[in-house]
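STRUCTURE:
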């Protein structure tokens, strides 16, 4: 797969109709990337920064779409993790090493992210709010989940927790 920083032009042309919020426009102050297989655009995501503390920014991924005929092949996750790894290395949108977050209402994506030791679920909302009462989540009435990407650090944390639990079990035996 080739990944290019394309801006938002492919959103309207190829991906918007496949997103769960088809009326959503480009994310403000964001750039966008498209994944291609043999010149066919197959996945898309927008990236911006988000302030999470005094002087601390985190990468925020949005409008993530993998075309239906490519879903389940693993290319969408490789695309997303390639870009989140760039953020961890400091080579991405933020320009210094940082974690990344993504929110989604797509059940299969949520299951995939929950199963990966590289990601942690950080939020969930069982239903949206009526459009006139909300400023976020697009005003839709869908369950949404938020996830943060830690990469290898997430895998290492799970291994440490397993080792600590094993040590604790041995000590109590």
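SEQUENCE:
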């Amino acid at each position: 797969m080739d990944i290019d920083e394309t801006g938002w032009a492919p959103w309207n042309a190829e991906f918007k109709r496949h997103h769960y919020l088809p009326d959503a426009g480009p994310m403000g102050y964001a750039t966008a990337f498209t994944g291609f297989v043999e010149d066919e655009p197959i996945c898309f995501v927008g990236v911006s920064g988000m302030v999470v503390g005094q002087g601390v920014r985190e990468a925020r991924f949005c409008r993530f779409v993998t075309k239906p005929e490519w879903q389940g092949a693993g290319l969408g996750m490789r695309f997303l993790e390639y870009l989140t790894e760039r953020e961890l290395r400091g080579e991405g949108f933020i320009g210094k090493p940082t974690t990344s977050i993504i929110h989604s209402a797509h059940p299969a994506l949520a299951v995939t992210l929950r199963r990966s030791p590289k990601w942690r679920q950080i939020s969930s909302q069982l239903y949206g709010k009526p459009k006139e009462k909300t400023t976020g989540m697009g005003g839709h009435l869908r369950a949404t989940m938020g996830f943060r990407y830690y990469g290898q650090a997430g895998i290492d944390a799970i291994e440490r927790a397993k080792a600590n639990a094993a040590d604790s079990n041995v000590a109590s035996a």
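REMARK: Helices lie at 9-15, 75-89, 107-115, 152-172.
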